[in-house]
Amino acid sequence: MPACPICDAPDANAAAAPTPRRRAPARPGIYLVSPSGAVLDPETLVRAKTHLSAEGFKVSMDRGASLRHERFAGTDAQRLAALQRAATQKSQFVMATRGGYGMSRLLDRIDWKAMADSGKTFIGHSDFTAFQLALLAKTGAVSYAGPMAVFDFGGKRVDDLTAALFGETLRGELEVLSFDSPDADPVDARGVLWGGNLAMLVSLIGTPYLPKIKGGVLFLEDVNEHPYRVERMLLQLHQAGVLAKQKAIVLGSFTDYKLSPLDGGYDMASVHAWLRREVKVPVVTDLPFGHVKTKATLPVGERVGIATEDGMAHLVFEAHERNHAGHDHDHGEHDHDHDHDHDHGHGHDHDHA
């Protein structure tokens, strides 16, 4: 097992099942809620509940989880009420059943202070990125970018590493996430970890729901987006002044697109090369996160360390910092700001399942 480059402590490698570091609390609760797209097959929720229970969680389900109105999991009012119920029920964790589209329609109607004050930890990815970034922008509260009920736990089989990383992260056991990144730029820094789905993040530019992070570690992923569209969104972030303020840009999976003869060899590698030329910020690739079966669970809004060496990248979480407080980790100063005003805006209409 490779050593953490920051303090030479052993870490958990994303290429192998992580090793538990301390005993987990007994059966933490997870509440399943559908804030975006409709769940088309209710059996996936039954399987998700079964699989999550097998992982040691006590699972409960919002009464509106299987609703459908047009393409949504109920009307806007019904989905808003579901989020309000999620903030007041007893389970510690709230997991989105799926993404799709719909969260952007709710952003200016959510009581963000109530969400943060609830003490719940919200989990999801894709369309749920809008909720997570708005929560961070408005309150500074940490959420988890990670698995969702239908996509990750609703199939006949659950990816073992996804489940293991999910459990370790929720129990506060995962200290360091290491992953192969053969072409990663050199970096050794600290900053607030933030980001998620690229299209959803870009949709928040110009609204009060985009966090104002300086010196952050920005992670990005997307699905069904051709490389030129990925580049165009990155260019928008760059021209909006977001990318240059970061300590590192960490790219996850960009999947399910099709190239054509018109591309003439232009692909995601071309996007990576363009990004490195245009933005003088270290770029790290191959983060195990996105619309893929094997994904990490990442704390959005938490301060992390990031370092690369010998074709590997390492994300160092707060548990690691607590357990190795005696080490001298001098990475310089990293400013970060959160916009905590309470104006209202709205997002976009891009569909991410």
Describe the 3D structure.
Belongs to the peptidase S66 family. α8 links the parallel β9 and β10. The chain has two domains: 25-174, Rossmann fold, CATH 3.40.50.10740; 175-320, LD-carboxypeptidase A C-terminal domain-like (Glucose Oxidase, domain 1, 3-Layer(bba) Sandwich), CATH 3.50.30.60. The protein is 27% helix and 20% strand. It is built from ten helices and 14 strands. α8 (227-239) runs parallel beside α9. The strands form two sheets. An eight-stranded mixed sheet has the order 1-7-14-13-8-9-10-11. Strands 3-2-4-5-6-12 form a six-stranded mixed sheet, with helices on both faces.
Whole-number radius of gyration? 19 Å
State the CATH topology of the largest domain. Rossmann fold
Strands ordered across the widest β-sheet: 1-7-14-13-8-9-10-11
CATH superfamily of the largest domain: Murein tetrapeptidase LD-carboxypeptidase, N-terminal domain
Our count of domains comes out at: 2
Q: Distance N terminus to C terminus?
A: 35 Å
* Arithmetic mean of pLDDT: 88
What is the CATH top level name of the largest domain?
Answer: Alpha Beta
Give the second-level CATH assignment, the architecture of the largest domain: 3-Layer(aba) Sandwich
> Pairing-aware structural class of the strands and helices?
alpha/beta
Flag low-confidence runs: 1-24, 326-353
% residues in beta strands:
15-25%
Task: Give me the strand/helix succession.
Answer: EEHEHEHEHEHHEEHEHEHEEEEH
Enzyme class: hydrolase
Keywords: Carboxypeptidase, Hydrolase, Protease, Serine protease
Family: Belongs to the peptidase S66 family.
Protein name: Muramoyltetrapeptide carboxypeptidase
